[in-house]
Amino acid sequence: ANFIPLAEQTGLIHEIGPMALRRACVQLAAWATLPGVNTWVLSVNVSPLQLASDSFVNDVRGILRGTGAPANRLRLEITESALAHDHAQIASTMNALREDGVSWSLDDFGTGFSSLSLLQVLPLDELKIDQTFVSGMGGDASHRELVRKIIEIAAILGVSTVAEGVETEQQRAWLASMGCRVFQGYLFGRPVPADDFHAAHVAPLV
Length: 206
Hints:
Largest sheet: 6 strands, parallel
Strand order of the largest sheet: 1-2-3-4-5-6
Number of helices: 10
Strand content: 5-15%
Helix content: 40-55%
Structural class: alpha/beta
Oligomer: single chain
Distance between the termini: 43 Å
Radius of gyration: 18 Å
């Protein structure tokens, strides 16, 4: 909440963003050679400032070529704040990389600038339901109904949903009953180094 806004304000995001993407693609390239993980998709957050850069498409393509990472295993996550910029340029950027195999996710859905008409023209593969909606489901039935409608909207648009901030079995059960199939949150695990994650989720070769 503090680090990224500061990086954007100082302009350092233009160094940090590509560095993070490069490290992620190095990891993807390594996973691509290992049975059991060679189909994993890795999501990387992209700042609105990066997305608005004229060089962004070429920067991503250069990193993919340089690391040997499979483009179809890379998913770029944007927040709704990115949609406050030139919509035509954003859509053009997204489409260019989607043609290469890169997929797109809209993070923190429901907290920002998106409209239904805009969602129809963007080449999205995934909507991520913001954790504020998920955490509020227990206290108010209207929150649960709102989440249900978000999942229905995603289905109409032909994109999948990911629920963020899932921390209890009750939240997971509610979401699953609404048709959500992918979850993110402390119920399933906390951030760990990639090697530890790999070891915990892949059976050792016999």
